[in-house]
Design brief:
single chain, about 290 residues, alpha+beta, Toxin ADP-ribosyltransferase, Chain A, domain 1, 5-stranded mixed β-sheet, 3-stranded antiparallel β-sheet, 8 helices, about 30% helix, globular
């Protein structure tokens, strides 16, 4: 602390950082420093460029993070009705545990059909940000975000909803849509370029996240009005389809001959949907991974 400038005065110019006591390093003002003749200069330059990119990635004008909703295949067919499907889709969490008593098999079927829609989306053309606000409730799934954030640490990977969460493209749209919640949670969701999320101009601009989206917890704080403000960064999935499809398929196979007609019917529907995805198992140096081609 107390160091005013860091860098080396040698010859070739690259970007280094100015720092004053008590200031955040990533908020510091860049200065040019000469590094000609310095051994391992290419590596140093790469490191500094990476730091610079990360520091500036999410600090632009908010309007620069609004997605283009006119791009073909930017919205799933079920965008408007996903909220109605969510209660069934959330049952997948129970299905993965082998619970099939109350229609969980139907939830698995609905989930995979929705997965197929998300897989066909055109990936985001740039980094985007979504804004979501939720209120406390006695209903378990509605209160899940509060419970998860309360126990999570900065840097943790979190799932705040097993269903598909809606978000606004601009923060001011929350107030324009008359959300008046007591001590709510405001989620600021950083969505990296390449994400397959559904977007349209409904309610002024809306984003729909895929089911069971995983996020890295960047920060959390309680502001003066009692609102919990949370910054999350969406974790890009390793493949087009959720990794739990293999588990869902295995459970469906176990119930294909169930004595319960409803369970048997949707176990078969799940297997039919999955078979259409042309599953391929590929073995690499890590182990067996599931790749699904549309």
């Amino acid at each position: 602390m107390g160091i005013e400038k860091t860098g080396l005065q040698l010859g070739k110019e690259i970007i280094a950082w100015t720092r004053t006591s008590g200031r955040n390093l990533l908020a510091a003002k860049p200065v040019k420093v000469n590094t000609t003749g310095l051994r391992l200069v290419p590596h140093l330059e790469d490191d500094i460029v990476q730091i610079s990119k990360q520091a500036n990635r999410w600090t632009k004008n908010p309007n620069e993070y609004i997605p283009n909703c006119k791009i073909p295949n930017s919205q799933i067919p079920s965008h408007h009705i996903a909220a109605g499907k969510n209660p069934d889709i959330r049952d997948v969490a129970d299905l993965r545990k082998g619970i099939v008593e109350d229609g969980e098999m139907f939830g698995g079927y609905q989930a995979i059909k929705l997965d197929k829609e998300f897989a066909k989306l055109t990936p985001l053309e740039k980094d985007c940000i979504g804004y979501r606000i939720v209120g406390r409730s006695n209903i378990a799934y509605k209160n899940m975000p509060f419970n998860v954030i309360e126990h999570a640490k900065i840097g943790d990977t979190v799932i705040l909803d097993e269903g598909c969460a809606y978000a606004f493209q601009q923060e001011n749209l929350i107030s324009l849509n008359n959300y008046n919640l007591k001590n709510p949670m405001l989620e600021i969701i950083r969505i990296p370029k390449g994400a397959r999320v559904s977007r349209n101009m409904e309610h002024g601009g809306e984003i729909l996240m895929p089911r069971g989206a995983e996020y890295k917890l960047i920060s959390k704080e309680t502001v003066s009005n009692g609102t919990i403000k949370v910054v999350l960064e969406y974790i890009l999935p390793k493949s087009k389809y959720p990794e739990d499809i293999r588990e869902i398929r295995k459970i469906a196979e176990q119930h294909i001959n169930s004595t319960d007609e409803f369970t048997r019917k949707y176990a078969q529907k799940i297997l039919d949907e999955i078979s259409s995805l042309q599953l391929m198992e590929v073995i690499d140096h890590v182990g067996v991974k599931l790749y699904i081609n549309p």
